[in-house]
Amino acid sequence: MSRNDLKILGAWPSPYVMRTRIALNIKSLAYDFLEEQFGTKSELLLKSNPIYKKIPVLIHDGKPICESLIIVQYIDENWTNFGHSILPSHPYDRAIARFWASYIDDKWFPALCGVAAAQEENAKKAATNTVIEGLMLLEDVYKNCSKGNKFFGGEKIGYLDIALGCFLGWLKVNEILNNVNLLDESTTPALYKWAEDFCANTVVKDVMPETDKLARAAKVIWAKVRAQTSS
């Protein structure tokens, strides 16, 4: 497939953009990555996603598709003969995967952001506990969904792997910058091993941000978030 057929509007630190890139890698689809600069929105982005004005946007043959999990589903459904299936084959398993992906986006990741944004020790401790409790919950979800295989989706990376795995770089940066231990081998051993396997996978490792580089970007982003919170 020509690179001109597919474009991603995104930014390298974004975990949501990473979802799109992993899905395209699974399908072995070439694409042009159009980098959006932090703090600005290009005319193409505003035109392509006028409702939310957010990245990522996948542009396929000139048509924009928005919202990361919707994009992942679109890629899986549109290129069924490329790579392996990302969504589970059984309707019940698909529903379960979508449910937990929503939990990750709506409950778990906001708590992770809360660890970084907290300015008082009690608030940071509460957010940290929420993140750890969520990981312990997801440990059980992983055991149920994986059925003894390497990933949530089986022996290959699937929908729920992408939904959670895109945040692993930010999880690690949070641990380093806030001096906390979140993903612990002693409390969530299965999820800990899953994270190692996910990051080492060929469809992931080239788009997973380098930790030091991501940490530098995170300091800038979180400083602005804290300033907005205190103002």
From TrEMBL:
Record's catalysed reaction(s): RX + glutathione = an S-substituted glutathione + a halide anion + H(+)
Keyword hit for Transferase: yes
PANTHER family: GLUTATHIONE S-TRANSFERASE U17, GLUTATHIONE S-TRANSFERASE, GST, SUPERFAMILY, GST DOMAIN CONTAINING
GST C-terminal domain segment(s): 90-221
Domain GST N-terminal: 4-83
Protein name: glutathione transferase
Record carries keyword Manganese: no
Entry's EC annotation: 2.5.1.18
Keywords per UniProt: Transferase
Name of encoding gene: LOC107005591
Similarity-based family: Belongs to the GST superfamily.
Record organism: Solanum pennellii
Lineage of the organism: Eukaryota, Viridiplantae, Streptophyta, Embryophyta, Tracheophyta
Regions that span the bilayer: none
